[in-house]
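Hi all, posting the design record for the shared folder.

TITLE: backbone redesign
STEP: 1 of 1
STRUCTURE INPUT:
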């Protein structure tokens, strides 16, 4: 079963709006406490969530030998709880109040390159994933303390069509000003590629997850060895990144202790001796390798509550 065939447990517009007003009225700690209870009841009464969390952790543990990935009942619950708490952090990013002093970079050189490219108003395409919480990066980009300000480039985000409706409806309801545009992945075509290329040439940036298939392109895939399992990934994501002819980064934001996040970045380097098809394959392989590293670092922030590793 694909992820888009499941009804997500925590992503409806109404839930987001309720979470927003709880955050605004009672604060982050109150919303975190509610998230603990909600995640507990979700875990208790959603057998598919428990089943797939256990299966995913079993695969991760077998591959990484990371003790934090043992598929115990407690770790399965922590996996669900971490997802709920990441939604709390999203509320803080929507309010533009996340403290960027709590955001670190795993590699100083990558951070310096990252900031320098923004200062030069270079377009960038970020290949992200459903590991951790990439939304905190937008807070970093839009904050005057980051050394980038006042450039604050426009952000283009690719989501499923349903998520676009939920996300845009949510932002409209809370009257939030966000310097971003959303694009449904099911409707990507040649015109979309041209528009995104033009936007990036003008210094904008784009985010697109490369670890889930979309309902509109479930047959346009490539298979890769991921965690010693054959997994299908969306070919179109990587073709779009290549078509923009801009800088491509693999990126992940992993939560650490005390509400801190660490940003992991890897810049994709074209091989000038390769043709386009070979460089596309290189990008795909390196992205999958990057995901394996991130899963080893944060196995309980692997937010795929469906049968990713289909037998």
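Okay, here is what came back for every position:
SEQUENCE:
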């Amino acid at each position: 079963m694909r992820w888009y065939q499941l009804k997500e447990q925590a992503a409806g517009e109404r839930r987001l709006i309720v979470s927003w007003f709880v955050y605004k009225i009672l604060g982050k700690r109150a919303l975190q406490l509610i998230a603990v209870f909600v995640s507990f009841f979700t875990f208790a009464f959603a057998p598919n969530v428990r089943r797939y969390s256990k299966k995913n952790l079993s695969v991760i543990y077998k591959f990484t030998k990371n003790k934090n990935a043992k598929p115990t009942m407690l770790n399965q619950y922590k996996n669900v709880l971490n997802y709920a708490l990441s939604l709390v952090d999203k509320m803080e990013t929507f309010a533009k109040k996340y403290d960027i002093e709590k955001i670190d970079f795993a590699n100083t050189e990558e951070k310096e390159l990252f900031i320098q490219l923004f200062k030069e108003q270079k377009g960038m395409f970020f290949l992200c994933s459903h590991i951790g919480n990439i939304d905190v990066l937008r807070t970093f980009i839009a904050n005057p303390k980051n050394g980038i300000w006042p450039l604050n480039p426009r952000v283009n985000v690719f989501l499923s069509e349903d998520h676009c409706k939920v996300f845009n409806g949510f932002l409209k309801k809370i009257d939030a000003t966000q310097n971003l545009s959303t694009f449904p992945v099911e409707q990507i075509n040649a015109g979309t590629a041209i528009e995104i290329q033009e936007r990036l040439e003008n210094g904008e940036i784009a985010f697109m997850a490369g670890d889930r298939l979309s309902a509109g392109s479930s047959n346009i895939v490539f298979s890769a060895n991921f965690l010693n399992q054959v997994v299908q990934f969306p070919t179109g994501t990587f073709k779009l990144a290549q078509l923009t002819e801009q800088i491509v980064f693999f990126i992940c934001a992993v939560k650490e202790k005390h509400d801190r996040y660490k940003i992991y970045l890897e810049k994709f380097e074209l091989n000038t001796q390769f043709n386009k098809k070979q460089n596309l394959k290189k990008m795909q392989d390196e992205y999958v390798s990057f995901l394996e590293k991130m899963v080893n670092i944060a196995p309980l922030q692997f937010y795929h509550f469906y049968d990713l590793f289909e037998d």
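COMMENT: The radius of gyration is 19 Å.
Let me know if anyone wants the other runs.
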